[in-house]
Amino acid sequence: MSEHIIIFDTTLRDGEQSPGASMTLDEKLQIATLLDEMGVDVIEAGFPIASEGDFEAVSEIARQIENSVVTGLARAIPVDIDRAGEAVRHARRPRIHTFVSTSPIHLQHQMKKTEEEVLEIIEATVGQSRNLCDNVEWSAMDATRTPLDYLVRCVDVAIRAGATTINLPDTVGYCVPSEYRNMFEYVRNNVVDADKAIFSAHCHNDLGMAVANSLAGIEGGARQVECTINGLGERAGNAALEEIVMAIRTRGDVLPYATKIDTRQLTRASKLVAMASGFTVQYNKAIVGKNAFAHESGIHQDGMLKHAETYEIMRPEDVGVRATSLVMGKHSGRHAFKQKLAELGFELGDNALQDAFRRFKDLADRKKHVYDEDIEALIEDHITEENELARVMSLTVIAGTGGPQKAILVMDVGGRHVTEEATGSGPVDAVFNAVKKILPHEAKLSLYQVHAVTEGTDAQAEVSVRLEQNGRIESGRGADVDTLVASAKAYVAAVNKLLARRRLHAQGVNAA
Q: What is the C-alpha radius of gyration for the chain, rounded to an integer number of angstroms?
């Protein structure tokens, strides 16, 4: 019997802390629902004290999730803990997750506290959390730079105060695997009541070792792993859920553990998080990258044709990747299209299906081959448009060597059609200037990125845009066979988020 490893997903909390990765309430609910369906044990839904929006998101996820434990994060501050307790109280299986720094560098420069004062804080705040909720997780922030003897004292106090899970995070991605494993072994061997709590690993990827360290933590006795879809997270990110789960599944010979994750949902989850966060997945990303199961080398292709295991240690279908993509075209009927959407994980009502089918036919008339990725981009782009305050109706661009380039843009703004013309130093600049005429703002463009969804000169372009204003970052994404139209959609999507935040601020709502 393989030991069960608890999968704790923090995409909606630690993942969303990536600059520019903020998600709407609807996006968070979609992701949380999918995490629950795929078998995630614990969903960290947010940081309730951070903003009213975060509190509402955690509360709504707590109400809707059927199976997973739902937890909210809280600093070791009484008001934070009360807020987290209030946010998760409607969950079927609630948890409060509280943390405090323990390393000398944090105590000296951030906390301004002595070791003894921190021990008193741990006892008081874990006890407060336990009075609100039977399931309490305590984290030693910057545990891997904390002297082991002091870390043992902190953990001992936390368990005696009522913590049921102890998290020893590599907060700054500092450890190497052997150190991380040794830390868990030392603490578990020296804390008297260590068997009364589950130990948890939480690793950041600053040195590219988050997954390796997480697996080392398991070998050292951790039975919970904290991770995110696509490795999303602050700085270089967190340990990637899909990599940890598939490492355990694939290498059971040296990792005799098991998770409850339905791995066939991993690719779907990756695409949903990428769409919601605006952070595209690199092509060579392990498990869920576009090239993860692609083979171009003649030697590799020959081996694959003779026996798949010559160059693939996992089956594509086990992570939700289809073996063939080119199956749809302009002659496909509505029934086949509906079946394809179901395979891709989309369930649409009659009206939405009719509209999606029309958009598919339009796309099929404009490009020779329609791949699964094209259909996904088309549907996801439409879902994004439905939630927009303003959207692109039509675009005409006049470009060439003579310059200046000119864009004529028609947009729907709150049900009213607005037309503007603008020039620029290039066609994209002209398009963005036209958008700014219709939706005025002072944000700075910090990222403009284009990549093809599929191959060929008629491939759909997927554009990602990031805007910065007053320390805030908003991102947008758009897809179209016309790169300029995709650019306009992406830019407008980012501006929509910017204006929505501005409107909330004017109403006195903290949308941080």
A: 25
- Cα separation, 365 vs 359, in Å, equals 10
Give the type of residue at 214: S
Tokens (6 digits) for 383: 């879902």
Question: What's the token pair of residue 42?
Answer: 């614990």
- The C-alpha angle with vertex 88 and arms to 278 and 128, in degrees rounded to 5, equals 125
Cα–Cα distance list, 45 to 60, 70, 450 (Å): 9, 7, 31
> For 118-124, which contacts have Cβ atoms below 8 Å and span 24 or more sequence positions?
118/154, 119/153, 119/154, 119/157, 121/76, 122/76, 122/154, 122/157, 122/158, 122/161, 123/157, 123/160, 123/161, 124/161
147-199 per-position pLDDT tens digit: 999 999 999 999 999 999 999 999 999 999 999 999 999 999 999 999 999 99
**Are the C-beta atoms of residues 410 and 418 closer than 8 Å to each other?**
yes
pTM of the model: 0.72
Q: How far apart are CA 118 and CA 102, in angstroms?
A: 7
8 Å CB contact between 45 and 71: yes
CA distance 344 to 502: 35
Phi-psi sector, 90: left (phi>0), alpha (psi -120 to 50), beta = alpha
- pLDDT score, position 305: 45
